[in-house]
Amino acid sequence: MTETVGKSVVLVVDDDDAFRSRLCRAFRDRGWETHGSADGSAALRLAEECGPELVIVDLRLPGMGGLDIVKELSDRDPSLCIIMLTGYGSIATALTATKLGAAHYLSKPADADQILEAYRRISSPVVAAPAAGDTATVPSLARVEWEHIQRVLADCDGNISQAAKLLGLHRRSLQRKLSKYPPRV
Amino acid sequence: MTETVGKSVVLVVDDDDAFRSRLCRAFRDRGWETHGSADGSAALRLAEECGPELVIVDLRLPGMGGLDIVKELSDRDPSLCIIMLTGYGSIATALTATKLGAAHYLSKPADADQILEAYRRISSPVVAAPAAGDTATVPSLARVEWEHIQRVLADCDGNISQAAKLLGLHRRSLQRKLSKYPPRV
DNA sequence: ACCGGGTGCGACAAAACGCCGCACCACGCC
DNA sequence: GGCGTGGTGCGGCGTTTTGTCGCACCCGGT
Lengths: 185, 185
Hints:
CATH architecture of the largest domain in chain A: 3-Layer(aba) Sandwich
Oligomer: homodimer
Number of helices of chain A: 8
Number of strands of chain A: 5
CATH topology of the largest domain in chain A: Rossmann fold
Strand order of the largest sheet of chain A: 2-1-3-4-5
Largest interface: A-B, 44 and 45 residues
Order of helices and strands of chain A: EHEHEHEHEHHHH
Helix content of chain A: 40-55%
Distance between the termini of chain A: 40 Å
Largest sheet of chain A: 5 strands, parallel
């Protein structure tokens, strides 16, 4: 894992150890050289050393915010591909992130495939037109609900009780929702 | 309205006549010179003529999509401030829009004040750090549901039956939800 | 006048929710 | 080892919300 030849290098910055290592493993399985960091300043140092093609950074980070890292990295190398992750898909933060130099912005839970797809899409400057003539593409209420639950849940590290409190419903209800939906939308 | 002296010029591109004229009036009241267009290609021509500082364009537009307009305008004058509006706040489209040159992206319903605020914020290159240490700012499930309903409903021009269909629930249920929540969340 | 489509509302069974309690497990602490 | 704390899974039960009818009404078009 020390040979840098032929391998693309990815740097994952996230304070969630489980998520970070899972993501790293996924990238390794796909032939990447991976580096992980839970800490912002450490990540900056690491980036210096390993010269990654791709950096994945969580918005919410202890110490310096993920946005600071994006800014710093982007200042150093504007061509660097930085993908931002976050628990809540907020448009405002997404815009800020891209303004600071992030190439893309994804909501957790995002798996390696999604990230890689985003990466590839960025590499080729083709802009896929998103829902333009939609109306039919309206997300169902259930879908919106489900996605929001997933976001909050991920943000609580899977803590159902806490997530339920934040979502404003009963723990039991959240449990039931979770045990019902999983199959699919 | 022909004198370009001292007045800032804004161009509003939206096929919703009511919304467009409302927005125009609001801007006029605030001392702007306003131009409106419901059509994409007409908007491009108008932009050529009036040389606006600010362009507000809806994502969903007949003929060419709002994104095309953003791209075209941005190509002509990269420094132009373009603010994108849309019914659904989708992160993906927001990113695409900014990549194409939009300066900001707002969800409808957005009033002139919000837009102006966004404009001012863009003018000054200060980047306001958005919710960084949130956790407390988690929108409740009910809130998310309500907002989504409002968006879809607005998109259906208030047609409850159609909105209910799109949302994946019964007309009766939507009615009940609407008659319950209205006060405020 | 007639019909299609949208709205408001009453009614009733079915499903979901709020809420309680209990058993169980993993920690951290004395 | 004991013990308290906090999270989870689950059963049950009363209440609330949905789904699904049906019906009366209004409006715009042929």
